Input
Amino acid sequence: MASVLKEVEARLGEGWRMQWGPPPRGVYLLKEVYMAEPEEASAYCGEGDLVVVYIVSALEGGLNVVYGRVKPGLSKCPMATFMRRFAKSEARQAVKTLIDFATGVDKVPLFQINPELIRFAGLCDEYPVVCEDPVVVVSKLVAASARRQRQREAEPPPRPQTWLLEELVKILREKIELDAGFVEIVKKIVEDPERLRGCYV
Amino acid sequence: MLKPKTDPCIFLHGEPEDWRLLLGEDFVNELIRRLKHVAGDLDQVVRYILDNPGVAGIAVRGLVFGGPFREEWRLFAEGGYVDPGARTRWPYMPNEEQLGLRIQISPCFLLASLSREVNYVWRNRASSLFKWVSAVPRSKPLEVFKEAFPAWLREVAQSRGYAWVAWTRWRDRRNRALAEWLYWLDTGRMPHIDAALGRMYETALRTKKSAAEVLYVPS
Output
């Protein structure tokens, strides 16, 4: 139990305070359908070593953003709440910290996060998949790929030609390394390329 | 304690001056402070919430309310829920027409946070809406519904008046909520708030009948 709490503390970084007990009331970071019922959790932590962790960003003025995988309520599990105060103007950072923890450490998929909260925090530009209508996301992706396609068509990449030249130079260099007399031939060709045609006729 | 003079529907009422008037300076300033990271002044706050109605429930979380509308505000601030019923008292017009549309939810219900139960209420009591949109839009609902509502319905409201629509029938009920929708789509304001400010009646009574005839109901 202690090791889990230590790890959470280490992941969160500075400024977080741990207390035992359920979190204060507030808005949940996850959609409620994806949070387990307290009775469900109780079944797992009868006498085991499990602890339910809540992480709370407390914005000044009574708005708490609560992240936890289990709905706060009566259960057999011990509960630990990590809390940090944020100024009102830091709402964006407060929510971002929690999302980073949820998706980075707990590997919660993005679609389980309450989109209204992301809108409230003004994080829509960072998580467009959560905020926007799927139709909008798809149409944007289509538009982006079309734009890329057009760019590709507009300026044909010079890569194949230079690649060919580089290959030729490499082959020539190898030849010259093997046979020093080959330098003379290359020199003659460069002096008068027309003479090369004579070889084939 | 904040004592707003109107219900939470004001969040869909795109008129910053009315916000100041009805919510009071304290409340408005608190909203600006809470949404500072996305909006600089009241105009931007109004626009941001109108574009993202789900944000309103989070922005008022934790505030304490009093005044005549405290029950509705408490429900909204603590549960993110608003009453789905229509709020406007439309002037009476004898009317037995059927429009064949089931929209018994006020646009105000867009503010309710979209849980499974709320979704059920939408689907059940406003099933006609979902012929036009696939889901309840969570951003820019005004634009989405302006596109989605059929043109004939908007025209009926324009030509015969919102009050006329309000007294048409759906089964044994009246279409009061539908009239609120049409008013909201045309003006971007909530009709009952306009009515409370004494501003609505010239538009609501844009009907074939004059106001004097409306008062007289033949028995």
Notes: The two ends of chain B are 49 Å apart (CA to CA). DSSP finds 13 helices and two strands in chain B.
